[in-house]
Amino acid sequence: MLKIINVVGTRPNFIKIAPLIKEMKKHKDINPILIHTGQHYDASMSKAFFEDLNIPKPNLNLEVGSASDAAQTAKIMLKFEKALLKEKPDLVLVVGDVNSTFAAAITAKKCGIKVAHVESGLRSFDMKMPEEINRILTDHVSDFLFTTEKSANQNLINEGIDKKKILYVGNVMIDTLISHREKAKKSRILQKLGLYKKEYAVLTLHRPSNVDDNESFKSIFNILNKVQRKIKIVFPIHPRTLKNLKKHCLLESLKSKKSIVLTEPLGYLDFLSLMINSKFVITDSGGIQEETTVLNVPCVTIRNTTERPITTTEGTNVLVSTDEDKILNSCNHIIKGVNVKSKIPKLWDGKAADRIINILLANLGRNHQT
Ligand code: UD1
Ligand code: UDP
């Protein structure tokens, strides 16, 4: 029996783990254990995804909650080590680039347990991003590095990682999108928020560089104020962003704008429906850049860099930083109705989880112990 501990902690992690757990459960010789670190804990950031995506209840919740990066990472490591010593798994599987990913990977490696990293090799080359530090360190302690785009393979090779460990398998986040697209059609979110197809833009913001920095935050909202004069903006507010909106007294002013619809963070199916039917998306999210590429929905990314360059070369993504002219020009261009056409990146076909599990079984399964 191959015992795999799967680690999740944040919203994008739940979306990435769903197809992997489903695939593991198809194999009698895999015993999947799910551990939630508790990094995200609001119902709208956690429970909603277990329900929408039918993810089994975690076997253990470490309940670390929010803290500074170092404190949160340390808390996860202390609690996760205990779980590892008790369970003695054959493999720890981590996804993405959040603190939970890095903390679990390094702890497992120090306990002598093999690590698989799903969504390996992405690089923004911006070490000010906490995620970039997490990505690099996680990759360098991993035994299986599963990648989503070819740039990731090259980044890992450039960092001296053994080519044999690097496995291009496609994108598990897109597995989830493909398997839930039909279900999302049943969502009533447009009616609930009073929206019409292609007559609104969706906005998400949560990067510390945009929302923790007072000047950037204010400047982004001044620009969005100009965009909302041309098109309705729907804004599901991430908890980090809500905290900052309150701190900088910006929430009341946003609420007063008729063309800005504020909501809590939405569940997966409602949010997918909102993206599918939108004119375009404005975001600083990582995963949303990929989803909009597959949905062929234009994506305006308020960042200077992206660790997912394929979304700009083959997909619908444009990077506009926080530059007012760039943001307004990109939005106006889309509002005027200029068509976009994306190519779906190779192997973003809904079968990435299947490939990952087959590789793990071939390398670690009963008949092929390494
Ligand atoms: C984290 C990840 C980021 C990822 C994002 C996905 C790190 C370093 N950052 O950012 O890479 O893109 O998740 O959404 O791991 N909070 C709540 N309720 C919650 C969770 C958070 O109120 O359920 C508030 C707390 O005030 C907390 C703040 O949001 O301090 C930030 O949460 P945290 O998990 O530290 O970082 P995120 O910005 O969510
Ligand atoms: N998402 C969601 N509800 C929302 C906002 C985002 O379901 O209100 C989904 C989105 O479709 C994507 C994921 O959350 O699958 C992205 O998470 P986030 O932007 O928090 O993290 P990142 O990808 O930047 O790490």
Fraction of residues in helices? 40-55%
CA-atom Rg in angstroms:
20 Å
Structural domain tally: 2
Biggest β-sheet: count, sense, barrel?
Answer: 7 strands, parallel
User: Cofactors and ligands present?
Assistant: uridine-diphosphate-N-acetylglucosamine, uridine-5'-diphosphate
Q: Kindly estimate the percentage of residues that lie in beta strands according to DSSP.
A: 15-25%
CATH superfamily of the largest domain: Glycogen Phosphorylase B
- By oligomeric state, this entry counts as single chain
Kindly provide the name of the CATH class of the largest domain. Alpha Beta
Descriptive account of the structure:
- With 370 residues, this protein is an alpha/beta fold.
- It has 2 domains: 2-171 and 348-367, Glycogen Phosphorylase B (Rossmann fold), CATH 3.40.50.2000; 181-335, Glycogen Phosphorylase B (Rossmann fold, 3-Layer(aba) Sandwich), CATH 3.40.50.2000.
- It contains 17 helices and 13 strands.
- It has helices at 11-25, 47-52, 69-87, 99-110, 130-140, 150-158, 172-184, 189-193, 208-211, 214-227, 239-247, 251-255, 268-276, 287-295, 310-313, 324-335, 352-364; strands at residues 2-8, 30-36, 60-61, 91-95, 114-120, 144-147, 166-168, 200-204, 232-236, 260-263, 280-283, 299-301, 317-319.
- The strands form 2 sheets. A 7-stranded parallel sheet has the order 3-2-1-4-5-6-7, sandwiched between helices. The chain has a 6-stranded parallel sheet with strand order 10-9-8-11-12-13, with helices on both faces.
- Helix 3 packs across helix 4.
- It starts with a strand and ends in a 6-residue tail after the last helix.
- Residues 11-12, 15, 204, 206, 236, 265-266, 268, 271, 285-288, 291 line the site of uridine-5'-diphosphate.
